[in-house]
Design brief:
The longest helix has 29 residues. About 50% of the residues lie in helices and about 15% in strands. It has two domains: about 160 residues, Rossmann fold (3-Layer(aba) Sandwich); about 120 residues, N-(1-d-carboxylethyl)-l-norvaline Dehydrogenase, domain 2, CATH 1.10.1040.10. The N and C termini lie far apart (about 45 Å). The chain has about 290 residues and is an alpha/beta fold.
């Protein structure tokens, strides 16, 4: 088993770290807010005062932070992962970053003999806790092969998409689709409620119909029950749609639907709904939303 530096123990990172320890790996952990390291430390992890300290003696570094800015902070610079990891270390970056950010960190790592794979995940809290995550992986085949035991400990499958950056690319495409479906569900249920349809019958028919999906079955009960406790925060979805649109622009690919949905998510975030579940887009499109909710 390996010694792993785990960076970022938030809603997703915390359960992922626990699953690595349950599989027998030894963890050295760092989080910007030290309170979030408590569960991992209770399970046997070593809390570290800095990223530089966490990577000492680690064969792998797993990172699960919010965005490109956070990734740059923990990966690059004098106190970051790349500058302090030993040659031969492999970084497994599970954050949802832009492909450009993934390639920037990979290039910095290569200059120091440190491997890098971008490995964002499909799944939310329930999947993180239940080892049901699906990893979308970009990187050199040898680095991906070395990281396979980590994917097996944290999820149910992984797929090697190609070179560094391809994992980030398919993740942004995946989340564009997820965000679009969430917005469509919100609009559909707004009309269903206005028409006086029975909530239970509506959930059954739409969930089992041609458009039915896991999102339908998880998000419809939250909307009907007005339970917007976060499984995946609306603000993070808005960020991912922004990254997707930037990528589409780089590739000269029109994305009018994604642009509309991002505008709705942006409006909801600006209405102080960003900390709620992405299904809270319903509050924005229906006019029910209020500051902080």
């Amino acid at each position: 088993m390996s010694t792993i530096a785990f960076i970022g123990l938030g809603a997703m990172g915390g359960p992922m770290a626990l699953n690595l320890m349950a599989a027998g790996h030894s963890l050295r952990v760092w989080n910007r807010s030290t309170a979030k390291t408590a569960a991992a430390c209770d399970a046997g992890a070593t809390a570290c005062a800095s990223v530089a300290e966490a990577v000492q003696g680690a064969q792998f570094v797993v990172s699960m932070v919010a965005d490109d800015n956070a990734t740059r902070d923990v990966m690059l610079g004098a106190t970051g992962v790349v500058a302090n990891a030993a040659p031969g270390t492999v970084i497994v970056d599970c954050s949802t970053n832009t492909p450009a950010m993934a390639r920037e960190v990979a290039a910095a790592g290569a200059a120091r003999g440190v491997g890098y794979v971008d490995a964002p995940v499909s799944g939310s809290l329930a999947q993180a806790r239940g080892r049901e995550l699906v990893f979308m992986v970009g990187g050199a085949p040898a680095d991906v092969a070395r990281a396979e035991p980590l994917f097996q400990a944290m999820g149910r499958s992984h797929r090697h998409m190609g070179a560094v950056g391809t994992g980030a690319t398919i993740k942004l495409i995946n989340n564009m689709l997820s965000g679009t479906v969430n917005a469509a569900i919100a609009e559909a249920l707004m009309v269903a409620e206005a028409a006086g349809l029975d909530a239970e019958a509506t959930q059954y028919v739409l969930g089992e119909g041609a458009a039915g999906s896991r999102l339908f079955k998880t998000k419809m009960p939250k909307i009907f029950g007005r339970d917007f406790s976060p499984q995946f925060q609306l603000a993070l979805m808005e960020k991912d749609l922004r990254y997707f649109l930037s990528l589409a622009q780089e590739l000269d690919s029109p994305a009018p639907i994604a642009a509309l949905v991002r505008s709705q998510m942006q409006g909801a975030r600006r209405a102080d709904l960003g900390a709620l579940d992405v299904s809270a887009i319903f509050l924005h499109v229906s006019g029910e939303g209020g500051a902080g909710r």
